[in-house]
Amino acid sequence: MPQPNGGESRARKESRQDRRREQQRDEKEQRDVAERSAPRTPVIYQVVRLHGEEEMSRPGTSLWWSGMAAGLSISFSLLAQGVLQAHLPQAAWSSLVRDLGYPIGFVMVVLARQQLFTENTITMVLPVMARPSLAALGTLTKVWAIILGANLAGTLVAAAFCTFTPVLEPQVRDAMLAIARQAMDKAPLAVFFHGITAGFLMAAMVWLLPSAESAQFFVIAAMTYLIAISGAAHIVAGSTESFLRLLAGDAGLASVVAGYLLPALLGNVVGGTVLFALISYAQVMKEI
């Protein structure tokens, strides 16, 4: 016996509501999957590349003062290490605890979005790789020179402040000098290869940050702590140690520049640009 028209309309209405609820449930599940999934590699590449393009377009004055701030901030890594070492006993494990202070300066720099040279060995290289030209290469070289010069100026000011003012307790200053001697007690070739490690780890940190979200602090701390405990050579953080020894009369200018700064700089560029940036670009060049 056929149903009344009212019954047919009600059945169709319930069917449409069921389909709508099922569609909404599917959409919610898709959103949940998207939220819980890590970004695809091409997405991370685009985020890092766009960040590099934004930074390269900033005025030179802005880059200089941001780089200067980064140099001052990064000096707190050595300060934190010195404070810890001054209060730790002489033991085989003490350096592992002391180096927990090393990430402090990097956390300040990265979360404050200050310009750090070793971050830019990947962020500003990717745009140049995407659209290579002599003009882009010239812009990259100029921006690198501004940021590196500003970073070193900042660490020099910090080292002078620690040396010529009574801001530090004598035992803390002695501990900082001891850490600096240990870091620089290597042949230039060894510093170069240790610089490759630091450059690669810094570039890896930059690559991980877009997908880290609320865990960015832990990514920064983990990568930079590994730099410290492995004895890797970071040009900016290491320049604080170098300038501290230079101003204290504990090392000569030639040994600071030729023995540490230049090899560390070359190693950081090789590790961050030649290795990590090229590999990262190779991963996505067929997909972008």
Spell out the key features of this protein.
80% helix, mainly alpha, 0% strand, globular, 288 residues, Glycerol uptake facilitator protein, 2 domains, 13 helices
Report the principal-axis shape: globular
The CATH superfamily of the largest domain is known as Glycerol uptake facilitator protein
* Radius of gyration from the alpha-carbon trace, in angstroms: 26 Å
Number of distinct helices: 13
Classify the helix fraction into a percent range. over 70%
Oligomeric description of these chains: single chain
**SSE string, helices as H and strands as E:** HHHHHHHHHHHHH
Look at the helices and sheets and give the structural class: mainly alpha
Number of domains: 2
**What is the name of the CATH architecture of the largest domain?**
Up-down Bundle
**What does the average pLDDT come to?**
87
CATH class of the largest domain: Mainly Alpha
How many strands?
Answer: 0
Q: For the report, how would you describe the main beta sheet?
A: none
For the termini, the CA-CA separation is: 62 Å
CATH topology of the largest domain: Glycerol uptake facilitator protein
Return residue spans where pLDDT drops below 50 for at least 5 consecutive residues.
32-37
| Percent of sequence in beta strands | under 5%
